[in-house]
Specification:
Elements: E1 11-19, E2 36-43, E3 48-52, H1 58-68, E4 74-76
Parallel strand pairs: 1-4
Antiparallel strand pairs: 1-2, 2-3
Length: about 80
Amino acid sequence: MRASIAAGSREVEVDESYFGPRRVRAKRGRGAANKTPGFGLLKRQGKVHTEIVPDCRKATLQAITSYHTRSCRTGIGDS
C-alpha cells in the first residue's frame, strides 16, 4: 500500500528527470535512448517520494501527484 506524503502539508514540490548513460550521439532531451524516467515529490520540511515511471506523460504524472497530494493546497513544479 502506498502512503500519501502530503498529510498535513500545504506545499509539495514535484519534478521529473531522466537517468542513464551520459550522452547518446544524435539523441538529446526526452527522446534520448536508454534513459529511465523518474519522478519525485518533496513535502516542504518533510517526506520525499520517488518513483521510476513508465513515461513522463501528463496523465501518468498527474495520477501519481494527485494520489500523493490529496490534502495538499499548493503544488510547485517547473514549467
